[in-house]
Amino acid sequence: MKTRRVMGSENAPWIFACACAIVLFGYEHVRSPSNAMLIQAYGVNSIPVAMAMLPLLAVPTLLFYGWLMNRWGPARTLWVSSTLSGFALLGAYMAISRGFSWACWALYWLRECYILLLLEQVWSFLNSFWDEDKASRLNGYVLAVSSIGTALGAYHVSEQAAAWGSHALILVAVGSCFGFGVVAAWAYRLCPDFEARQRSDPLKDMSQQERSRRSIVQVFWQNKALGWILLLVVTSQIHGTFATVQFQTFLSESLSTVDAQVAYSGRFFSSLAVTSIVVQLLLSRPLLVGFGFGKVHLLIPAIHFVCLLWAMYAMDLRSAALCLFTFKALDYSLFRAAKEILYIPFDFEVRYRAKEWIDILGYRGGKVLASSVLLGLQALNLAVLVPFCGLVCVCLWGISVGYLFIWGQGKGEAFDAGMISQTKS
Predict the structure, then answer these.
(1) What's the gap between Cα 124 and its chain centre?
(2) Location of each CATH 1.20.1250.20 domain in the chain
(3) Which of 42, 282, 288, 311 sees the fewest Cβ atoms within 10 Å?
């Protein structure tokens, strides 16, 4: 199966990677302040509540995004969504500056939604621009370029938070949204025939009214493999949330002072950042090209399964740190690069609509589900079962991968020789 590709400047993906670095640089300036200000205003228990209420913003945001996509297409939708994100963050900043504590909730929800909405649109473009071979070779490098923004942003926050004040850092995130929109628009201008070539997709032959009536539920129903991809994303994020909680729990129990905990965390996350970039630059391409992205998808949950077994046996800080370190190092490198390839053979509607629902609700919804389970276990004094719950999630993760690549073959719903075929109702 040969996937149709659009023609355009080969520089466009790298300009998009730079745009991602810009918006991720700004995101670091809103991630930590939004947590700190919400906790200061409403207490530490406000974080799980804010996470549980996140779908109240995520679902309307996705519906509005779908309306924009049907009306204006991907290029103008990306520009509008980045501009609106900047103004929304600016509004939250102004409300907080005037003493409206409720704006801390809005800022937290905005920060959770806007970054994924913008980044996923970039990946929708890349999944439409590159074929599977090129994506296997170059996705890791795109991630490495965008990670530079994360690293520089985190460093700038650590150096300037005290001098600027937490709420003032939000303005950097505002500026990064506008900068992202300008650079992304430049990248789209290098591919003037991009949207025209998308009309080669069967669904683009529909009128705008017909496509508007085609709900996201119909898109999922007509492409059954999307449900398994959603399960893959959700279970991976639930496992990551459990791993984070276990790490923080053992960290607070093993090191008595806050200074010691901060120092350990600093060493941990600095080592993690270096490892992630190494995986992106040196391992993603050899593994995806030489090993095959289907086998990579099978390998990742297997690695987490082994780490969890050791964590359940040892039950100490070192084993909990290994679980979290392994998850974080693979999540935004090898896993992300391999996951994006899953969408490439699908049509325009899946790559630009269903993908956003899967990744935004999957990533954030996974955290919501994990938070709910954790609160329930804590209420029942069964927090010791957290590693076991993580093990269950990893098994479900493996089952979803197994269906896509092994058991579903021959049914038109899974990967065959590294390619996925669409399932039409």
Answers:
(1) 13
(2) 10-195+207-213, 215-425
(3) 282
